[in-house]
Write a structure and sequence with these properties.
Distance between the termini: 46 Å
InterPro entries: Cu-oxidase_C, Cu_oxidase_CS, Cu_oxidase_Cu_BS, Cupredoxin, CuRO_3_CopA
Radius of gyration: 17 Å
Shape: globular
Number of helices: 3
Protein name: Plastocyanin-like domain-containing protein
Structural class: mainly beta
Mean pLDDT: 78
Helix content: under 10%
Number of strands: 16
Oligomer: single chain
Order of helices and strands: HEEEEHEEEEEEEEEEEHE
Largest sheet: 7 strands, mixed
Keywords: Metal-binding
Domain Plastocyanin-like: 140-256
Strand content: 25-35%
GO molecular function, one term: oxidoreductase activity
């Protein structure tokens, strides 16, 4: 318990708007169980604001979209290195989110809660490498940031404090190369899976590490990976803990 609290509470900001969720069919979701709609979760408030858009305009982007730092980063000289500054959407300040991380760890060699400094050798993301390198050697044209959020007392899970039923899809242009940045603002580990597209995990300095389907984030951790939008369609993007997915930690990614 001391290991979890000591590694987690630094840099966290406690806050407090939750939404209900209803699942719909999506490419890549066959074979999963427990996917019936959560229509009985009506009584929860609906979020009106989504993530911030730092791309074509300053201010807020409605509808549950992720934060996009494309133009801001381009003006600063490119996206060679992942951003490190925490940017919390307004939707994270509500009842669906009970904490936020402002100073997340970015190292890949953290074994996780209960496995630190106990004499065991643990395989971490830092030990994984794809010898052949990335299939797509282009750098990212823009950066999309998503925060893994929740309220453990209310059994609510989401991205950016917004449940799937209230969130607009994340839209990728066919052929583009995008960096996804995930920040775990919760006290639980989340394995995040983007269907249909490869995830090229990066080191903190932006170097290619390993090609994966599912990226696991420890509490208070910030990771980035590059995605090539080379498969048109509607793709599921969710936590692989099925309860978290059904409770709202789910987004649709549309490649068009």
């Amino acid at each position: 318990m001391n290991d979890m609290m000591g590694g987690m509470m630094g840099g966290m900001d406690h806050g407090g708007s939750g939404q209900a969720m209803e699942m719909t069919g999506m490419t890549g979701m066959t074979g999963m169980t427990g996917m019936t709609g959560m229509t009985g979760m009506t009584g929860m408030g609906s979020g009106s604001m989504s993530g911030m858009d730092h791309g074509a305009m300053a201010g807020m982007n409605h509808g549950g979209m992720a934060m996009d730092h494309s133009q801001h980063a381009a003006a600063a000289g490119g996206l060679a290195v992942p951003s490190t500054t925490a940017r919390h959407a307004r939707t994270e300040y509500g009842a669906s989110t009970d904490m936020r991380v402002d100073m997340a760890r970015t190292n890949l060699d953290d074994p996780g809660i209960g496995l630190r400094n106990n004499g065991r050798r643990v395989l971490t993301l830092a030990d994984l490498h794809t010898p052949s390198g990335p299939l797509d050697k282009r750098g990212p044209g823009r950066e999309v940031e998503l925060h893994l959020t929740g309220n453990m007392e209310r059994y609510m899970w989401s991205f950016n404090g917004v449940n799937f039923s209230d969130a607009k899809p994340i839209v990728l242009r066919y052929g583009e190369r995008v960096r996804f940045v995930l920040v775990n603002d919760t006290m639980m580990t989340h394995p995040i899976h983007l269907h249909g597209l490869w995830s090229d995990l990066e080191s903190p300095d932006g170097a290619f590490q390993v090609r994966k389907h599912t990226i696991t984030l420890n509490p208070a951790q910030r990771l980035s990976y590059r995605v090539s939008a080379d498969a048109r369609g509607h793709w599921a993007y969710h936590c692989h803990l099925l309860y978290h997915m059904e409770a709202g930690m789910f987004r649709a990614v549309v490649v068009e």
